[in-house]
Amino acid sequence: MPAPYASDLRQRLLADRDAGMSTAAVAQKYKVSPAWVRRRLQRRRQTGETAPRPQRRGPLPLAQTHAAQIRQAVRDRPDATRAGRRHQRGLAVALSTPWAAVAALGLRLEKKSPAPRSRIGPT
Known about the structure:
The chain is mainly alpha-helical. The chain is built from seven helices and no strands. Helix 2 crosses helix 3. The chain is elongated, with a radius of gyration of 26 Å.
């Protein structure tokens, strides 16, 4: 997601519009779309806000919302499977979500030993 336009650009844009420039002229001067200029004017008129709004979309990551519980779960059962971890926490999330949270918290998991190698050699 691109970064929001700077506050000083928004202030200059609104000042030019207040000074009587047309929406199209302001948009061309600052290389933004006329619709964006109209939305900035509408938002200032309705709420008085001119600064960019926070850009966070969607739910917060599990590493932020359930950090203590995830740490405790890893201490209690470091060898739990993906499905086991999700079920253990009672979360309705994708199988990869608890794993991403464990990685984001920098926790290490106990790895299961691999299956024994086949004794059949090359022929």
